């Protein structure tokens, strides 16, 4: 998977390069005596980045000549960590009470014995990194020669590819696909038929992942004929691969009642669902169903059988057996797009008009489209990535990539997604892979995600620009290429919720590999623990020790009773924490002074510990749906970098402390 390693490494390398430029000319570099080291490091960064660009379109995992790429990525992360150490320590000093604004970084590093030790440590680490870089450059073989000698049929299949799923698709909303329009009309005819009872009330759409099932269902639900027929009584739930009756009832309750399911007993939710549906003609969309057990489906259907005659269920699935298990009366199989339809969709997504392209671009473009196998998601992502990229070498690199040398359509779709990631702008790569920390189907709030990107420094404001505005541009770019997609018209606190297609989510996990951990391993090997940078735990009851948490940058915890080693409290690297529906005992992790983003949701507690005032780097604090939460500590005013404070549906909250006025960067 070296091609993915190369693509992923370019992002931290660019981030490191951006931080190196001001450091080289800084007073600190001169005083610390590392100006020469930093300059040489900058040269090596440039050379390695050029080499990585040469292999990013290839899958060359088994070639020993390219094992240096993984080592390179680890070194790149060490550089970023080191530069973070310097910058954050300087920022900490600037936000302190003894900073008068008249002294530079050099004064800080020379004014205290502790700072002198840090200066020496910095110089030592920079020299060590330079040696490691030089060793990698020396050991690697000539990239151009190696690539030239690769046989045409050389490729390696991914050994770690996850099972692909589908959640919310694909951003063909603005594209006109005649084939899908015809299929939509046929399905609508069956949905608005007036047949009642068990016979004829379930319509299923079956198709390959990325073929447009969810998008088609969305278009059907927004069709005026359907909306009028069901009097806008249309609901949708995302079923997902895991069939869990309790979760499905909770999702159904939330969709129908527009209330949160937490703190409601199952029987109460069942009765409420039945009451809300009683006598009403409704359309329920069951999106992305995988479960094949007909008995389980029969039990679920009992909860929605109180509707009026003419009520319908629209189910989307990849598996014909699922459609059979729910006793579908009508099953529609989505067909692949023709060559001409695929080419038209590609042009729409890329923003190019055929008359503006030369003959060579047209030929190469059509060859790329053919490799996508008529699957909209594959065509859309590649077309969007090539938007405004009128460089024939880039187009040829995609066409000639050995990633296409696979047999099945499923594998070709995934190959197109990997190539789209390879050609994503470097400043977007880390923002994209950050989303791997969320579970599939997670509702992504735009402003929240941008703040999470800001916490680890993924957004680098230039010319004193607003980081939120830059983050909004990044977010829009990911939406444009289809890596983030609009939800089913779900609004959250006046903000549109976004989601990530499950195939795209699989891509984030494939890219990160062992940098993402989703369950606490029983045994931890020395080789893998330093690579964990994203920790995502759902319903976990395990203890997280320091060896696993040592380099974690972002933490997501949902449910369960996860505990953390006390030594984690002083973690330097943790930047973002989300705690949802879990226990208060995990608040001990909030003592990390470098924490930049904190979100607490559906947790019952009274107040934050005073220790939160030690999180001097905290920029965003969100407290949502927290029963019993009454107050913030008076010491909250010490959070000089706090930009966002959200207290949503905290009905027991009393008032803000007076010290909140000391948070001068806070947005109101």
TrEMBL record:
Keywords: ATP-binding, Leucine-rich repeat, Nucleotide-binding, Plant defense, Repeat. GO terms for biological process: defense response to bacterium; innate immune response-activating signaling pathway; plant-type hypersensitive response. Residues 437-507 form the Disease resistance protein winged helix domain. Residues 181-348 form the NB-ARC domain. The keyword Endoplasmic reticulum does not apply. This is AAA+ ATPase domain-containing protein. It comes from the Eukaryota. InterPro entries: Apaf_helical (IPR042197), LRR_dom_sf (IPR032675), NB-ARC (IPR002182), P-loop_NTPase (IPR027417), Rx_N (IPR041118), WH-like_DNA-bd_sf (IPR036388), WHD_DRP (IPR058922). Residues 16-94 form the Disease resistance N-terminal domain. PANTHER family: NB-ARC DOMAIN-CONTAINING PROTEIN, PLANT BROAD-SPECTRUM MILDEW RESISTANCE PROTEIN RPW8. The keyword Ubl conjugation does not apply. One of its GO terms (molecular function) is ADP binding. Belongs to the disease resistance NB-LRR family.
């Amino acid at each position: 998977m070296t091609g993915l390693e190369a693509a992923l490494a370019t992002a931290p390398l660019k981030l490191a390069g951006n931080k190196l430029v001001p450091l080289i000319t800084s007073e600190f570099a001169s005083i610390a005596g590392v100006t020469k080291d930093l300059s040489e490091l900058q040269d090596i960064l440039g050379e390695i980045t050029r080499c990585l660009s040469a292999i990013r379109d290839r899958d060359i995992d088994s070639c020993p000549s390219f094992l240096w790429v993984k080592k390179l990525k680890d070194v790149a992360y060490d550089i970023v960590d080191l530069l973070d150490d310097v910058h954050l320590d300087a920022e900490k000093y600037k936000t302190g009470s003894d900073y008068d604004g008249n002294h530079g970084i050099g004064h800080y590093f020379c004014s205290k014995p502790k700072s002198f030790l840090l200066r020496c440590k910095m110089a030592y680490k920079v020299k060590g990194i330079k040696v490691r870089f030089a060793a990698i450059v020396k050991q690697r073989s000539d990239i151009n020669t190696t690539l030239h000698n690769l046989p045409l049929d050389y490729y390696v299949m991914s050994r770690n590819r996850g099972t692909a799923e589908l959640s919310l698709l694909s951003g063909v909303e603005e594209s006109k696909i005649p084939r899908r329009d015809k299929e939509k009309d046929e399905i609508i005819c069956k949905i608005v038929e007036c047949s009642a009872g068990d016979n004829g009330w379930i319509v299923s759409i079956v198709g390959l992942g990325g073929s447009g099932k969810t998008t088609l269902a969305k278009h059907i639900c927004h069709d005026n004929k359907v909306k009028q027929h069901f009097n806008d009584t249309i609901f949708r739930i995302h079923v997902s691969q895991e069939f869990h009756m309790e979760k499905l009832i909770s999702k159904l309750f939330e969709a129908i009642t527009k209330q949160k399911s937490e703190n409601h007993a199952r029987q109460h939710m069942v009765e409420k669902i039945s009451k809300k549906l009683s006598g009403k003609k409704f359309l329920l969309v069951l999106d992305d169903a995988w479960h094949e057990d007909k008995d389980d489906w029969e039990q679920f259907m009992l909860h929605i059988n109180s509707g009026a005659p003419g009520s319908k269920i629209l189910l989307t699935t990849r598996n014909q057996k699922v459609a059979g298990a729910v006793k579908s009366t009508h099953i529609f199989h989505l067909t692949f797009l023709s060559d001409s339809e695929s080419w038209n969709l590609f042009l729409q997504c890329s923003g190019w008009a055929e008359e503006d392209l030369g003959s060579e671009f047209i030929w190469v473009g059509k060859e790329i489209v053919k490799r996508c196998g008529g699957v909209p998601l594959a065509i859309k992502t590649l077309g969007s990535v090539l938007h405004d990229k009128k460089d024939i070498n880039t187009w040829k690199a995609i066409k000639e990539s050995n990633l296409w040398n696979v047999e099945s359509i499923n594998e070709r779709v995934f190959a197109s997604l990997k190539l789209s990631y390879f050609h994503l702008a470097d400043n977007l790569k880390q923002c994209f892979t950050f989303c791997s920390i969320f579970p599939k189907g997670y509702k992504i709030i735009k402003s929240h995600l941008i703040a999470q990107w800001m916490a680890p420094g993924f957004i680098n404001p230039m010319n004193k620009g607003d980081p939120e505005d830059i983050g909004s541009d990044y977010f829009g770019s990911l939406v444009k290429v289809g890596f983030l997609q609009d939800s089913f018209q779900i609004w959250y606190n006046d903000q549109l919720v976004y989601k990530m297609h499950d195939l795209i989510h699989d891509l984030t996990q494939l890219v990160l590999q062992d940098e993402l951990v989703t369950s606490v391993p029983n045994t931890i090997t020395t080789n893998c623990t330093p690579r964990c940078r994203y920790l995502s735990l759902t319903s976990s009851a395990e203890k997280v020790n320091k060896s696993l948490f040592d380099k974690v940058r972002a933490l997501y915890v949902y449910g369960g009773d996860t505990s953390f080693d006390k030594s984690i409290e002083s973690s330097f690297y943790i930047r973002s924490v989300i705690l949802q529906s879990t226990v208060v005992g995990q608040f001990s992790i909030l003592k990390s002074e470098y924490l930049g983003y904190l979100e607490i949701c559906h947790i019952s507690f009274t107040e934050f510990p005073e220790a939160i005032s030690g999180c001097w780097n905290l920029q965003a604090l969100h407290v949502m749906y927290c029963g019993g939460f009454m107050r913030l500590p008076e010491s909250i005013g010490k959070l000089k970098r706090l930009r966002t404070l959200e207290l949503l549906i905290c009905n027991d909250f009393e008032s803000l402390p007076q010290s909140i006025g000391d948070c001068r960067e806070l947005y109101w």
